[in-house]
Specification:
CATH architecture: Alpha-Beta Barrel
CATH superfamily: Divalent-metal-dependent TIM barrel enzymes
Protein name: Metabolite traffic protein EboE
CATH topology: TIM Barrel
Number of helices: 14
InterPro entries: Xyl_isomerase-like_sf
Shape: globular
Distance between the termini: 8 Å
Strand order of the largest sheet: 1-13-7-6-5-4-3-2
Largest sheet: 8 strands, parallel
Number of domains: 1
Length: 406
């Protein structure tokens, strides 16, 4: 049996760098990307995952010269963009973010306008051999989706962007893909919920009617176009926090026909046995500006907390009740499996790569450990270039090992 082809596009997420404005993102890109390329891809074209905030998207939309300068710089440095992180709309670095990261969500026009701007930028700055993907939020923070009308509004706005992507391909010949990223505490949270939304909302008769209305095309056309332009980012960290069997979740998506437009290699913080000593060690991870959704498994039941601090407070109030395991949405370096008394969900990455080695899931692979700024000091060996380069080297070695093993 011939081995599966290697992943075509692989990068680390520039969400790890300052990039709330285009000036910040441009400076981060031009400072760090050449250094990483020199280490991991000195003689081959280097893929870039670009973070674009709404402010950055507006800047590039309004300034054709800046788009041309970006494209020229990428060409001159043997780099190309293949994916954009358009999940955080506003500021993401240097201040408390928490659940505000989902705002504005897919219930209103701001998210639609921003995502369409990103698509238009990608159609212009990416090479013709790439079908770029846009990573976006999982519709909304779960407590905000209360009624059927809320759900319908979210779906309609996503389909409005799909209609824009259909028209963009018709006009430019460039296929852009929108990829929603399920995440704990959001409307799209588990893999089963995500499949259900595609089946019941996007591919249903109501979803098809909506896309027909938005595109002016017949049913025979829009059914295929929905799958051509709308799929998901499968973040292994997020689904590991849900205690999902990663291989089974990927098989479910494949069997259901939900496109995985980007496979995101990320590891979560794992506490196999919550003890007083483990909780003391965990305190170092509570000083974070990001949400740290935590899931507890005890006696086969799952209990979800919005933050790690909430989970610790609940444990301190009642530490009895038998053994329990915690998994926390705190991205940790994927090349580590031991965090000094704590563990990680790194095996979930290997499980996903094993599935991918048998049946390629996506030609977009990305590492998204954006938490360098809030990692405890003992986990920082070297600088940010060392850190992301080691992650890229680890994923390449693990992928090659699994392909060779077959």
């Amino acid at each position: 049996m011939n081995p599966a082809p290697a992943v075509q596009h692989l990068a680390y997420s520039t969400l790890v760098h300052p990039g709330d404005t285009w000036e910040e993102m441009r400076d981060s890109l031009m400072t760090y990307a050449p250094l990483v390329k020199a280490r991991v891809s000195p003689d081959e074209p280097y893929a870039v995952s670009l973070r674009l905030s709404a402010e950055s998207a507006r800047t590039l939309t309004d300034d054709p010269g800046e788009r041309e300068r970006l494209r020229a710089w990428l060409d001159d440095n043997d780099m190309y963009v293949y994916t954009v992180n358009a999940f955080p709309y506003g500021p993401f670095k240097g201040r408390v973010v928490m659940e505000q990261v989902y705002e504005p969500d897919w219930s209103g026009p701001d998210r639609v306008r921003y995502t369409c701007q990103v698509a238009d930028i990608l159609a212009e700055v990416t090479p013709s051999h790439v079908s770029p993907s846009i990573q976006t939020s999982p519709l909304a923070f779960r407590p905000k989706v209360v009624t059927a009308a809320d759900r319908a509004r979210l779906t309609e706005n996503v389909l409005a962007v799909v209609a824009h992507l259909v028209d963009l391909e018709r006009r430019t010949g460039r296929r852009i893909k929108l990829a929603l990223e399920p995440e704990p505490a959001c409307f799209l949270e588990t893999t089963e919920e995500t499949v259900a939304w595609f089946r019941e909302d996007v591919w249903s008769s109501s979803g098809t009617d909506t896309l027909c209305r938005l595109t002016g095309l017949p049913v025979s056309e829009v059914v295929g176009l929905a799958r051509r332009h709308l799929g998901i980012v499968f973040d292994i960290c997020h689904q590991s926090v849900q205690f999902e069997d990663i291989a089974a979740s990927l098989r479910l998506l494949t069997e259901a026909g939900v496109p995985v437009f980007k496979l995101q290699a990320a590891a979560a913080l794992r506490v196999p046995d919550v003890t007083a000593s483990a909780v003391e060690t965990l305190e170092a991870f509570t000083d974070t500006i990001y949400l740290s959704q935590t899931t507890e498994r005890r006696d086969g039941r799952l209990t979800r907390f919005l933050t790690l601090a909430d989970a610790i407070a609940a444990w301190r109030a009642d530490p009895s009740g038998g053994p329990r395991e915690w998994r926390t949405h705190f991205h940790v370096p994927i090349f580590l499996d031991d965090l000094g008394g704590l563990s990680t969900t790194q095996p979930g990455i290997t499980a996903a790569l094993e599935v991918h080695a048998c049946t390629p899931l996506s030609d977009h692979l990305e590492i998204e450990t954006y938490t360098w700024d809030v990692l405890p000091a003992h986990l920082k060996n070297g600088d940010i270039v060392d850190y992301v380069s080691r992650e890229l080297e680890w994923i390449r070695a693990e992928s090659e090992r699994l392909v060779t093993r077959r």
